[in-house]
Amino acid sequence: MNFWFHVADVFLTFFHSLLMVFNLIGWLFPATRRLNLFTLLLTFGSWTFLGYWYGWGYCPLTDLHFEILEKLGHKHLPPSYLQFILNRFLGWDISTRLADYITVGGLSVAALGSIVVNFRSLSHQRKPKGTKY
Predict the structure, then answer these.
(1) How far is the C-alpha of 21 from the C-alpha of 55, rounded, in Å?
(2) Does residue 15 sit in helix, strand or coil?
(3) Is the Cα torsion angle 105, 81, 58, 20 positive or negative in sign?
(4) Model confidence over 70-113: pLDDT tens digits?
């Protein structure tokens, strides 16, 4: 049983970290822009709609991963997944407030970028051929 918790820990660390990076930069690549907008909407939806019941900024991936880590014996896990990742891989111990600022700021910039490039792409698709604007 312990083996599967370790497998789940590795998988969730990889998947959740990849999702975080994709949320931040996926809008930069034309092929992934729509998927990026979708994952950003899911992330904001989790933070707000699920957050209404579970606490603002709630993430089911973080919740599941921390549950597994607790079963593996980890204690005193931080409230932020960013804090956890930075400490686990870089040994950095940042405050919850700083982690929240980085998380919300980074995702807000990514969301704005994603919205702009997706709407530009949509408006270019609708433009009749032969028009300049």
Answers:
(1) 23
(2) helix
(3) positive
(4) 999 999 999 999 999 999 999 999 999 999 999 999 999 999 99
CB contact at 8 A, 65 and 12: yes
Q: What is the pTM of this model?
A: 0.87
| Residue with the two structure tokens 């409230």 | 79
Q: Please state, in angstroms and rounded to a whole number, the distance separating the CA atoms of residues 23 and 27.
A: 8
Angle between helices 2-25 and 81-90 (to 10 degrees): 110
| pLDDT one-digit tens code per residue, 2-15 | 999 999 999 999 99
Name, in order, each residue with C-beta under 8 angstroms of 99's C-beta and a sequence gap of 6 or more. 78, 80, 82, 83, 86
